[in-house]
Amino acid sequence: MSAPRSDTRQRIQEVARELFVVKGVQRTSLQDIAARLGISKPALYHHFSSREDLVRSIVQPLIDGGERYVQSCEARPDATAREILEGFFDYSYRNREDLVMVISELSTIADLGLIDSMMAWRERLGLLFFGPDPTLEQAARAVIALGGLQDCCIQFPDAPPEALRTAAVTGALAALGLRP
User: Fold this and answer.
1) What residues contact 23, with CB distance under 8 A and at least 6 apart?
2) pLDDT tens per residue, range 36-47
3) Full-prediction pTM beyond 0.90?
4) pLDDT per residue over 89-123, tens digit each?
5) Could you tell me which residues come within 8 angstroms of residue 17 by beta carbon, excluding any fewer than 6 positions away?
6) C-alpha–C-alpha distance, residues 175 and 152, integer Å
7) List of the chain residues with pLDDT < 50
8) Domains of the chain by range and CATH?
9) How far apart are CA 159 and CA 31, in angstroms?
10) 109 touches 136 (CB < 8 A)
11) Across the chain, which distance is largest between two alpha carbons, in Å?
């Protein structure tokens, strides 16, 4: 008996993630993915019409989740910078494998039109820290704080999560020029 469609789809995505991180999106063919799974290429096409469709299926949930997180912050004008940063860390840490793929394949992800939303998050969260008209210095601090916080989720995969969260949020607050 074959696996249900959703299980096969999920297995394809898992194998694709692994291969994309190791070989890169452009150097990973659908045949490579099918071979690793022990299925035929036509069987893979039953689930994804192209490599781009497969990449989009992996990255879109990351983008949708980030958008929901930013919207939830925007709906809470009383949220502190620490709360926003802790939540952004949690979101980034949960999605660090997909973030690695995005970073390693930035041009491919950008070509699919998937990067603009992710870049806009930093700007929108920065407005929550500094108001509607941040100075260039404030906007730069927000980019450094949020980008650095995401980078910590990727850079230190073996660090204890709570210790990493504390260190990354403290560093991000410092980058914002706010007291930890």
Assistant:
1) 32
2) 999 999 999 999
3) no
4) 999 999 998 888 888 777 777 777 778 888 888 89
5) 58, 97, 98, 101
6) 14
7) 1
8) 1-49 (1.10.10.60), 58-176 (1.10.357)
9) 36
10) no
11) 61
